[in-house]
Design goal:
4 helices, alpha/beta, 2 domains, 131 residues, four-stranded mixed β-sheet, Rossmann fold
Length: 131
């Protein structure tokens, strides 16, 4: 988990202290993107705070850091804010286009949008031989 706010990082570290596979760091993405690779990248409540160029850079870095079969989950507020260049729908359209991965699912509510993309479009049942 990454956030630019030291206070948010401190809270997240405290809340995930008992979880072995969660690493919490203070970083401003996309400029301070980690060098590791990931099975899952979650982009939540971030994309609309970025410029178009920074959002595109985030998308490229996200895609490049995914391991084979990796998944991207994005979650954003759908309403417009005068402080932001994009709303959540625009962020997700841009992410989907830039990731170039199969789109697996979408949850769309009045205020919230969640999308999931994965290199492997098979269902878990198909992958495990149950379908």
């Amino acid at each position: 988990m990454s956030d630019g706010s030291e206070r948010v990082v401190e809270l997240a570290r405290a809340r995930t202290a008992a979880t072995d596979n969660v690493d919490v760091r203070r970083a401003w993405v996309p400029n301070e993107w980690p060098s590791e690779t990931f099975d899952l990248v979650v982009i939540s409540e971030l994309g609309y705070f970025l410029s178009g160029d920074a959002l595109d850079a985030l998308t490229v870095k996200t895609r490049a850091s995914l391991r084979a079969g990796g998944t991207v989950l994005a979650c954003h507020w759908r309403r417009h804010s005068d402080d932001c260049e994009f709303n959540g729908d625009e962020v997700h359209r841009r992410l989907g286009k830039g990731l170039g991965m199969p789109h697996l699912s979408q949850l769309e509510e009045l205020d919230l949008r969640i999308d999931v993309w994965c290199e492997n479009p098979e269902s878990v049942a198909e992958r495990e031989g149950f379908a």
